[in-house]
Protein backbone atom coordinates (compact mmCIF):
# COMPACT_ATOMS: atom_id res chain seq x y z
CA UNK A 1 0.00 0.00 0.00
CA UNK A 2 2.91 2.30 0.67
CA UNK A 3 5.47 2.92 -2.11
CA UNK A 4 9.15 2.14 -1.40
CA UNK A 5 11.90 4.49 -2.38
CA UNK A 6 14.64 3.08 -4.64
CA UNK A 7 17.99 2.24 -3.13
CA UNK A 8 21.30 2.64 -4.88
CA UNK A 9 23.59 0.49 -2.77
CA UNK A 10 23.52 -3.18 -1.95
CA UNK A 11 24.29 -2.37 1.68
CA UNK A 12 21.13 -0.30 2.16
CA UNK A 13 19.03 -2.91 0.37
CA UNK A 14 20.37 -5.62 2.67
CA UNK A 15 19.57 -3.48 5.72
CA UNK A 16 16.01 -2.90 4.54
CA UNK A 17 15.52 -6.61 3.92
CA UNK A 18 16.79 -7.45 7.39
CA UNK A 19 14.54 -4.86 9.07
CA UNK A 20 11.52 -6.09 7.11
CA UNK A 21 12.16 -9.63 8.28
CA UNK A 22 12.36 -8.49 11.91
CA UNK A 23 9.14 -6.43 11.64
CA UNK A 24 7.27 -9.32 10.04
CA UNK A 25 8.37 -11.64 12.84
CA UNK A 26 7.10 -9.13 15.42
CA UNK A 27 3.76 -8.69 13.69
CA UNK A 28 4.68 -5.34 12.13
CA UNK A 29 3.92 -4.18 8.64
CA UNK A 30 1.63 -1.82 6.81
CA UNK A 31 -2.18 -1.58 6.83
CA UNK A 32 -2.61 -4.35 4.27
CA UNK A 33 -1.33 -6.91 6.79
CA UNK A 34 -4.46 -6.52 8.95
CA UNK A 35 -6.31 -8.95 6.70
CA UNK A 36 -3.71 -11.71 6.84
CA UNK A 37 -5.37 -15.08 7.21
CA UNK A 38 -8.92 -13.95 6.39
CA UNK A 39 -10.65 -15.52 3.40
CA UNK A 40 -14.13 -16.46 2.21
CA UNK A 41 -17.20 -14.91 0.60
CA UNK A 42 -19.64 -12.50 2.27
CA UNK A 43 -22.66 -12.30 -0.04
CA UNK A 44 -24.94 -9.29 0.45
CA UNK A 45 -28.18 -8.26 -1.28
CA UNK A 46 -31.06 -5.89 -0.61
CA UNK A 47 -31.65 -2.15 -0.84
CA UNK A 48 -30.27 -0.28 -3.82
CA UNK A 49 -30.39 2.85 -1.65
CA UNK A 50 -27.98 1.45 0.94
CA UNK A 51 -25.86 -0.23 -1.76
CA UNK A 52 -23.44 2.70 -2.39
CA UNK A 53 -22.41 2.80 1.27
CA UNK A 54 -21.94 -0.96 1.62
CA UNK A 55 -20.10 -1.05 -1.69
CA UNK A 56 -17.74 1.72 -0.57
CA UNK A 57 -17.05 -0.16 2.68
CA UNK A 58 -16.48 -3.42 0.77
CA UNK A 59 -13.99 -1.74 -1.59
CA UNK A 60 -11.96 -0.33 1.30
CA UNK A 61 -12.17 -3.61 3.21
CA UNK A 62 -11.02 -5.50 0.12
CA UNK A 63 -7.85 -3.44 -0.11
CA UNK A 64 -6.82 -4.83 3.27
CA UNK A 65 -8.38 -8.29 2.91
CA UNK A 66 -7.76 -9.41 -0.65
CA UNK A 67 -8.81 -13.01 -0.04
CA UNK A 68 -12.32 -12.03 1.11
CA UNK A 69 -14.93 -11.60 -1.65
CA UNK A 70 -17.94 -9.34 -0.98
CA UNK A 71 -20.44 -9.55 -3.87
CA UNK A 72 -23.35 -7.13 -3.39
CA UNK A 73 -26.73 -7.33 -5.14
CA UNK A 74 -29.40 -4.62 -5.46
CA UNK A 75 -32.61 -6.66 -5.49
CA UNK A 76 -34.46 -4.27 -3.18
CA UNK A 77 -35.14 -4.35 0.55
CA UNK A 78 -38.07 -6.77 0.38
CA UNK A 79 -36.31 -9.23 -1.92
CA UNK A 80 -33.17 -8.94 0.20
CA UNK A 81 -35.06 -9.90 3.36
CA UNK A 82 -36.53 -12.93 1.59
CA UNK A 83 -33.09 -14.22 0.61
CA UNK A 84 -31.66 -13.30 4.00
CA UNK A 85 -34.32 -15.14 6.01
CA UNK A 86 -33.93 -18.16 3.71
CA UNK A 87 -30.25 -18.28 4.60
CA UNK A 88 -29.11 -17.55 1.04
CA UNK A 89 -27.00 -14.52 1.94
CA UNK A 90 -24.88 -13.40 4.88
CA UNK A 91 -26.16 -9.83 5.10
CA UNK A 92 -28.86 -7.65 3.61
CA UNK A 93 -29.03 -3.91 3.06
CA UNK A 94 -32.32 -2.34 4.18
CA UNK A 95 -33.77 1.13 3.75
CA UNK A 96 -36.44 0.34 6.35
CA UNK A 97 -36.63 -1.80 9.49
CA UNK A 98 -37.66 -5.42 9.13
CA UNK A 99 -41.47 -5.82 8.99
CA UNK A 100 -43.44 -7.75 11.59
CA UNK A 101 -44.34 -10.50 9.13
CA UNK A 102 -40.70 -10.84 8.04
CA UNK A 103 -39.53 -11.00 11.65
CA UNK A 104 -42.21 -13.62 12.38
CA UNK A 105 -41.06 -15.74 9.43
CA UNK A 106 -37.47 -15.53 10.66
CA UNK A 107 -38.55 -16.59 14.14
CA UNK A 108 -40.53 -19.54 12.78
CA UNK A 109 -37.44 -20.69 10.88
CA UNK A 110 -35.20 -20.25 13.90
CA UNK A 111 -33.22 -17.64 11.99
CA UNK A 112 -31.50 -15.09 14.25
CA UNK A 113 -30.04 -11.80 13.13
CA UNK A 114 -28.65 -8.46 14.23
CA UNK A 115 -30.13 -5.13 13.07
CA UNK A 116 -27.39 -2.54 12.54
CA UNK A 117 -28.11 1.13 11.87
CA UNK A 118 -25.43 2.63 9.60
CA UNK A 119 -26.57 6.11 8.42
CA UNK A 120 -29.47 8.49 7.84
CA UNK A 121 -31.13 9.30 4.53
CA UNK A 122 -33.94 11.51 3.27
CA UNK A 123 -36.33 10.95 0.39
CA UNK A 124 -35.99 13.52 -2.36
CA UNK A 125 -39.07 14.52 -4.35
CA UNK A 126 -37.97 15.79 -7.76
CA UNK A 127 -39.36 17.27 -10.95
CA UNK A 128 -37.81 18.20 -14.26
CA UNK A 129 -35.65 21.38 -14.24
CA UNK A 130 -37.92 22.90 -16.91
CA UNK A 131 -40.83 22.78 -14.48
CA UNK A 132 -41.06 26.44 -13.43
CA UNK A 133 -44.31 26.36 -11.43
CA UNK A 134 -43.72 23.80 -8.67
CA UNK A 135 -42.24 25.79 -5.80
CA UNK A 136 -43.12 23.27 -3.07
CA UNK A 137 -45.52 20.42 -2.32
CA UNK A 138 -47.50 19.78 0.84
CA UNK A 139 -47.89 16.32 2.38
CA UNK A 140 -51.55 16.41 1.36
CA UNK A 141 -50.62 17.25 -2.23
CA UNK A 142 -48.14 14.36 -2.34
CA UNK A 143 -50.87 12.08 -1.02
CA UNK A 144 -53.24 13.40 -3.66
CA UNK A 145 -50.72 12.38 -6.33
CA UNK A 146 -49.73 8.95 -5.01
CA UNK A 147 -52.74 7.64 -3.05
CA UNK A 148 -54.81 4.66 -4.25
CA UNK A 149 -57.61 5.63 -6.65
CA UNK A 150 -55.97 9.04 -7.16
CA UNK A 151 -57.92 11.35 -9.47
CA UNK A 152 -54.84 13.39 -10.37
CA UNK A 153 -54.31 13.32 -14.12
CA UNK A 154 -52.87 16.80 -14.70
CA UNK A 155 -50.83 19.27 -12.70
CA UNK A 156 -53.95 21.45 -12.41
CA UNK A 157 -55.59 18.64 -10.45
CA UNK A 158 -53.01 19.16 -7.71
CA UNK A 159 -53.19 22.92 -7.24
CA UNK A 160 -55.35 25.62 -8.76
CA UNK A 161 -53.37 27.80 -11.13
CA UNK A 162 -50.99 25.07 -12.24
CA UNK A 163 -51.17 24.09 -15.94
CA UNK A 164 -53.72 21.54 -17.12
CA UNK A 165 -50.92 19.40 -18.53
CA UNK A 166 -50.63 15.65 -18.05
CA UNK A 167 -48.54 14.58 -15.06
CA UNK A 168 -46.26 11.58 -15.40
CA UNK A 169 -45.50 9.89 -12.09
CA UNK A 170 -42.52 7.73 -11.19
CA UNK A 171 -42.06 5.50 -8.16
CA UNK A 172 -39.59 2.88 -6.92
CA UNK A 173 -40.81 -0.69 -7.36
CA UNK A 174 -42.90 -2.39 -4.70
CA UNK A 175 -39.91 -4.44 -3.45
CA UNK A 176 -38.04 -1.27 -2.54
CA UNK A 177 -37.76 -0.18 1.08
CA UNK A 178 -38.00 3.36 -0.30
CA UNK A 179 -41.48 2.54 -1.67
CA UNK A 180 -42.50 1.09 1.70
CA UNK A 181 -41.21 4.12 3.58
CA UNK A 182 -42.77 6.71 1.26
CA UNK A 183 -46.18 5.05 1.07
CA UNK A 184 -46.37 4.69 4.85
CA UNK A 185 -45.22 8.29 5.47
CA UNK A 186 -47.46 9.84 2.81
CA UNK A 187 -50.40 7.48 2.28
CA UNK A 188 -50.60 6.18 5.84
CA UNK A 189 -49.87 2.53 5.08
CA UNK A 190 -46.90 0.78 3.50
CA UNK A 191 -47.42 -0.68 0.01
CA UNK A 192 -50.61 1.36 -0.55
CA UNK A 193 -50.30 3.36 -3.78
CA UNK A 194 -52.05 4.30 -6.98
CA UNK A 195 -51.48 1.74 -9.70
CA UNK A 196 -52.80 3.03 -12.98
CA UNK A 197 -51.60 4.30 -16.34
CA UNK A 198 -50.27 7.54 -14.84
CA UNK A 199 -47.57 5.88 -12.75
CA UNK A 200 -44.42 3.99 -13.70
CA UNK A 201 -42.78 1.69 -11.14
CA UNK A 202 -39.12 0.85 -11.51
CA UNK A 203 -36.79 -1.46 -9.59
CA UNK A 204 -33.88 0.61 -10.94
CA UNK A 205 -33.62 4.01 -9.24
CA UNK A 206 -31.43 5.30 -12.07
CA UNK A 207 -34.32 4.67 -14.46
CA UNK A 208 -36.47 7.01 -12.34
CA UNK A 209 -33.72 9.63 -12.44
CA UNK A 210 -33.57 9.37 -16.23
CA UNK A 211 -37.37 9.35 -16.54
CA UNK A 212 -37.81 12.61 -14.62
CA UNK A 213 -34.72 14.22 -16.16
CA UNK A 214 -36.05 13.51 -19.65
CA UNK A 215 -39.68 14.60 -19.20
CA UNK A 216 -40.74 18.11 -18.16
CA UNK A 217 -44.15 16.77 -17.05
CA UNK A 218 -42.70 14.20 -14.64
CA UNK A 219 -42.39 13.82 -10.88
CA UNK A 220 -40.66 11.12 -8.86
CA UNK A 221 -38.98 10.29 -5.56
CA UNK A 222 -35.99 8.28 -4.30
CA UNK A 223 -33.18 8.42 -1.75
CA UNK A 224 -31.52 11.82 -1.32
CA UNK A 225 -28.12 10.43 -2.31
CA UNK A 226 -29.45 9.75 -5.83
CA UNK A 227 -30.49 13.40 -6.08
CA UNK A 228 -27.05 14.57 -4.99
CA UNK A 229 -25.46 12.42 -7.69
CA UNK A 230 -27.80 13.86 -10.35
CA UNK A 231 -28.67 17.35 -9.13
CA UNK A 232 -27.48 18.94 -12.37
CA UNK A 233 -30.42 17.34 -14.23
CA UNK A 234 -33.17 17.42 -11.58
CA UNK A 235 -35.11 20.04 -9.60
CA UNK A 236 -35.53 19.34 -5.87
CA UNK A 237 -38.98 20.08 -4.45
CA UNK A 238 -39.20 21.50 -0.89
CA UNK A 239 -41.83 19.81 1.27
CA UNK A 240 -44.34 21.66 3.45
CA UNK A 241 -44.94 19.29 6.36
CA UNK A 242 -47.49 21.54 8.08
CA UNK A 243 -44.92 23.07 10.39
CA UNK A 244 -42.37 24.40 7.93
CA UNK A 245 -41.32 24.13 4.29
CA UNK A 246 -38.08 22.16 4.30
CA UNK A 247 -35.65 20.83 1.71
CA UNK A 248 -33.55 17.75 2.47
CA UNK A 249 -29.90 18.30 3.34
CA UNK A 250 -27.45 16.87 5.86
CA UNK A 251 -28.75 18.95 8.75
CA UNK A 252 -32.50 18.67 8.13
CA UNK A 253 -32.23 14.90 7.63
CA UNK A 254 -30.14 14.42 10.77
CA UNK A 255 -32.26 16.60 13.07
CA UNK A 256 -35.51 15.18 11.61
CA UNK A 257 -36.86 18.61 10.66
CA UNK A 258 -37.37 17.08 7.20
CA UNK A 259 -39.98 14.79 8.73
CA UNK A 260 -41.73 12.69 7.63
CA UNK A 261 -39.34 11.94 4.73
CA UNK A 262 -36.11 11.34 6.66
CA UNK A 263 -35.16 7.86 7.83
CA UNK A 264 -32.43 5.60 9.22
CA UNK A 265 -30.65 3.05 7.01
CA UNK A 266 -29.67 -0.45 8.10
CA UNK A 267 -27.74 -3.60 7.39
CA UNK A 268 -28.86 -6.91 8.86
CA UNK A 269 -26.43 -9.74 9.53
CA UNK A 270 -27.04 -13.37 10.43
CA UNK A 271 -25.98 -14.20 14.00
CA UNK A 272 -24.70 -17.57 12.81
CA UNK A 273 -22.60 -15.98 10.05
CA UNK A 274 -21.17 -13.52 12.58
CA UNK A 275 -19.24 -16.47 14.03
CA UNK A 276 -17.07 -16.45 10.89
CA UNK A 277 -13.97 -14.30 11.51
CA UNK A 278 -14.15 -12.60 8.10
CA UNK A 279 -17.79 -11.57 8.68
CA UNK A 280 -16.99 -10.24 12.14
CA UNK A 281 -14.02 -8.33 10.74
CA UNK A 282 -16.16 -6.88 7.94
CA UNK A 283 -18.81 -5.59 10.38
CA UNK A 284 -16.13 -4.12 12.61
CA UNK A 285 -14.56 -2.41 9.60
CA UNK A 286 -18.01 -1.24 8.40
CA UNK A 287 -18.88 0.50 11.66
CA UNK A 288 -15.37 1.94 12.03
CA UNK A 289 -15.50 3.57 8.59
CA UNK A 290 -19.20 4.17 7.87
CA UNK A 291 -19.11 7.71 9.25
CA UNK A 292 -16.54 8.98 6.76
CA UNK A 293 -17.82 6.92 3.83
CA UNK A 294 -21.49 7.83 4.41
CA UNK A 295 -20.69 11.49 3.71
CA UNK A 296 -18.80 10.55 0.55
CA UNK A 297 -21.77 8.69 -0.94
CA UNK A 298 -24.41 11.28 -0.01
CA UNK A 299 -25.76 9.96 3.30
CA UNK A 300 -25.72 11.56 6.72
CA UNK A 301 -23.47 9.71 9.21
CA UNK A 302 -24.46 8.77 12.74
CA UNK A 303 -22.68 10.32 15.71
CA UNK A 304 -19.43 8.58 16.69
CA UNK A 305 -20.98 7.31 19.92
CA UNK A 306 -23.86 5.79 17.95
CA UNK A 307 -21.44 3.76 15.84
CA UNK A 308 -19.73 2.66 19.05
CA UNK A 309 -23.10 1.57 20.47
CA UNK A 310 -23.77 -0.49 17.33
CA UNK A 311 -20.36 -2.12 17.74
CA UNK A 312 -21.06 -2.99 21.36
CA UNK A 313 -24.41 -4.49 20.38
CA UNK A 314 -22.52 -6.84 18.04
CA UNK A 315 -19.87 -7.64 20.62
CA UNK A 316 -17.13 -5.93 18.62
Question: Could you characterize what this model shows?
Answer:
By secondary structure, the protein is an alpha/beta fold. The chain has 2 domains: 37-120 and 263-314, Periplasmic binding protein-like II (D-Maltodextrin-Binding Protein, domain 2); 121-262, Periplasmic binding protein-like II (D-Maltodextrin-Binding Protein, domain 2, 3-Layer(aba) Sandwich). Helices cover 37% and strands 18% of the residues. The chain contains 11 helices and 13 strands. The strands form 3 sheets. Strands 2, 4, 5, 7, 8, 9, 10 and 13 form an 8-stranded mixed beta sheet that branches. Helix 6 (177-187) links the parallel strand 7 and strand 8. Helix 2 packs across helix 10 (277-296) and helix 10 (277-296) packs antiparallel against helix 11. The longest helix is centred in the C-terminal third of the chain and has 20 residues, at 277-296. The chain is elongated.
Number of helices: 11
Structure classification:
alpha/beta
What share of residues is helical?
25-40%
- The total strand number stands at 13
Order of helices and strands: HEEHEHEHEEHEHEHEHEEEHEHH
Task: Note the beta-strand portion.
Answer: 15-25%
Q: Could you list the spans in which at least 5 consecutive residues all have pLDDT below 50?
A: 1-34
Any idea of the CATH class of the largest domain?
Alpha Beta
Radius of gyration: 23 Å
What is the mean predicted local confidence, pLDDT? 88
The CATH topology of the largest domain is D-Maltodextrin-Binding Protein, domain 2
The CATH homologous superfamily of the largest domain is named Periplasmic binding protein-like II
The CATH architecture of the largest domain would be 3-Layer(aba) Sandwich
Number of domains: 2
The biggest beta sheet reads: 8 strands, mixed
Shape: elongated
Q: End-to-end span in angstroms?
A: 26 Å
Amino acid sequence: MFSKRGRKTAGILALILMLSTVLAACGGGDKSDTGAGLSGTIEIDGSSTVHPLTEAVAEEFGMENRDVRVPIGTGGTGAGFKRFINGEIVMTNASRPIKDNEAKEAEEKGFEYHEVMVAYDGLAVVVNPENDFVDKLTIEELKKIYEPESKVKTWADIREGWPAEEIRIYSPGTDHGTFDYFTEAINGEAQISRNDGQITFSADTNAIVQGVAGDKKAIGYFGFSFYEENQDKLKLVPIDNGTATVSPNAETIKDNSYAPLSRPLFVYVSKKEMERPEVKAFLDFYLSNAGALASEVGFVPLQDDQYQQEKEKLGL
